[in-house]
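WARN  no MSA supplied for this record, continuing single-sequence
INFO  ligand: zinc ion
INFO  echoing inputs
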Amino acid sequence: MSLLKFKTIGISLNKNNCSLRYDGFVSDLEEHTRKVLLEFGATQEEIKNAYNKGPLAMEPDLSLHEGRFICTSDDDETVFNYVIFFKNKNNRLTNTFSKAHEETHVLHHMGELHLLEKKLRASRAIINLSDFYDYKKCNSQDHELVANIGGFYGLQRNNFNMSYVFSHEYSPSRIKNRPDLIPAVEAYKRVLKFGK
Ligand SMILES: [Zn+2]
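INFO  complex generated
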């Protein structure tokens, strides 16, 4: 039994067939991806195909390009190794969002999204995620919606002022060209009552 700790979203769980490793900040996401895949025994051919679904799944994270998670598994898919890493944006808010976003992708991939929902509920951000529990039934927009909600939860949990978050860093004018962010921003703003 191994205890997995999702540090930014504050979730710990026991999973006897999974491991979770943080590689922290890396200078090049592509290069680090290759390194991790080789380390976990992928062949050059598998690396070439790594963007396809399969035992060697990878989250390219087309939305943000600020972080990534990799999941490798054995051939019969009984053991899963997750690795998370990020680009340093030299901004605590952006980095926190990015970490929480990738952690949420992994939690979702593991089939444990209900744990985030529970955390959200406890912090007044009541968002029903039950339609998204099954990672494989979700499309990439769903994956990003869920991970972005986790990103905002990570900011809230780490004491960022959410009123500031939505009026400055993720204000309507700043996210107008980010269709991947808009649904999560709207969902989160809808449920949070800012203290006025
Ligand atoms: Zn993502």
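The chain has a mean pLDDT of 87.
INFO  checksum written, moving to next record
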